[in-house]
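Quick one, tokens below. Sequence please?
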């Protein structure tokens, strides 16, 4: 644009004739306009691309953070509801070895008294009235064995509920 003086403000710009409009513009002028348009388009595309990349990075970082947080919460829930209770049950059973040891000692004492009374014994030849080595095994199948109660994992609660529902439906259908 030209710098306009006060004198130029009073005059209207000269109108182009139709001939001037129809004359082809110089090639360098057209190339300059094309380059400016291309450069502007490239800048616009690069700006949008950078914006999309930044937003995608933010989204991926947030997604990763939420996944890590979800895993941490799931692990904490598992520790609180599964690992710690199971650890307590195991520790309690390990501490109860004294009871098992005492029962074994009582069984051994009973056996030794019987052997001292009879002189010699064989597993095939014993009198159940005097001494039955399998008495407690017949009465209690878990005699001298450490057992833990059935443990229902709270993280699998949905699966347990679904299994219970299927079992109930099957019982209703079969009538048992």
């Amino acid at each position: 644009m030209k710098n306009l003086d006060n004198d130029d403000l009073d005059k209207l710009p000269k109108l182009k004739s139709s001939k001037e409009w129809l004359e082809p513009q110089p090639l360098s002028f057209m190339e300059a306009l094309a380059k400016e348009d291309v450069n502007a388009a490239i800048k616009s595309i690069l700006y949008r691309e950078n914006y999309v990349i930044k937003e995608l990075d933010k989204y991926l970082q947030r997604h990763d953070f939420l996944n890590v947080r979800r895993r941490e919460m799931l692990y904490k829930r598992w520790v609180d509801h599964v690992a710690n209770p199971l650890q307590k049950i195991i520790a309690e059973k390990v501490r109860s070895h004294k009871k098992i040891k005492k029962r074994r000692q009582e069984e051994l004492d009973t056996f030794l008294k019987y052997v001292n009374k009879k002189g010699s014994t064989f597993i095939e030849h014993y009198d159940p009235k005097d001494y039955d080595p399998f008495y407690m095994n017949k009465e209690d199948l878990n005699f001298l064995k450490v057992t833990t109660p059935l443990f229902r994992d709270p993280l699998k609660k949905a699966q347990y509920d679904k299994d219970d529902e299927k079992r109930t439906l099957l019982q209703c259908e079969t009538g048992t």
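The longest helix spans residues 27-95. The helical segments are 6-10, 18-22, 27-95, 97-118, 135-139, 157-174.
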